[in-house]
Write a structure and sequence with these properties.
The chain has 232 residues and is mainly α. The protein has helices spanning 14-18, 24-27, 35-38, 53-126, 138-148, 151-165, 201-216, 219-229. The relative contact order is 0.08.
Length: 232
């Protein structure tokens, strides 16, 4: 075994070091009287090889134990620091995601409200702009609807009218009394769009568009509901 000075094992326990001659002063905490005493000659220095084998093992075990404890403490501190950093990052990412989702939802809600308002304005303006006739063909009624319903919503709107009345503004359900293009029940509901609802398909279109927008958000959303339930 190489002759390693006990001075290198500053971590030795008081009990183990007391048995090693001149190292007793260091282990017991006594202060060297002067620098010359601190710089003892090699002959006076207690070496690891001079310590009995059993006590060598105690010295080495004490040193290694303290090193292992120090490394474990450092590892725990590093792991805790990494965990805290990861938690802060995750919290920040969650907050950003929630903010983005809230902003997206608010934007979509605003767009829906604006679309409803625009559709209502268009319906109110256009329903009274068509010349009054004694009768209307399907093509004429569809032309009115194209002018009153947004182009991106017309096909959905048309699908519902096809299924409800086949574009017959006088269509009447004999058993329930549902009436008109949208089979409103009771039929008098159309009156909220105009007093000429029985004879003017434009008035019925106005009512039907307002109904779809207010209840479902748009004609396409109303059509999606109709497909799932076969009523709206």
């Amino acid at each position: 075994m190489s002759r390693i000075s006990v001075r290198g094992f500053a971590v030795v326990s008081a009990t183990a070091v007391t048995a090693v001659g001149s190292v007793v002063g260091v282990a017991s905490g006594s202060v060297a009287q002067n620098n010359n005493d601190a710089e003892a000659t090699a002959a006076d220095t207690t070496l690891l090889a001079d310590i009995p084998a059993g006590q060598q093992a105690q010295v080495q075990t004490a040193s290694l134990t303290q090193q292992a404890d120090a490394q474990a403490i450092a590892a725990d501190a590093s792991a805790k620091k990494d965990a805290e950093a990861a938690a802060r990052k995750a919290a920040a990412e969650t907050a950003v995601a929630k903010k983005d989702a809230a902003e997206k939802a608010a934007k979509e809600a605003k767009e829906r409200i604006e679309a409803k308002a625009a559709a209502s304005r268009d319906a109110a303006r256009d329903s009274s702009s068509f010349p009054v006739q004694s009768s209307y063909s399907v093509a004429q009624i569809q032309a009115m609807a194209r002018q009153m319903v947004a182009s991106g919503q017309f096909q959905c709107f048309s699908n519902i009218v096809d299924h409800e009345s086949s574009w017959n503004y006088h269509a009447t359900n004999a058993s329930s009394g549902a009436y008109g293009l949208f089979q409103a029940l009771p039929a008098g509901k159309y009156a909220s769009a105009g007093s000429d609802w029985q004879t003017n398909p434009a008035t019925q279109i106005k009512w039907g568009l307002n109904y779809m927008n207010s209840r479902y958000g748009s004609p396409c959303e109303a059509w999606s509901f109709w497909q799932a339930n076969h009523w709206y």
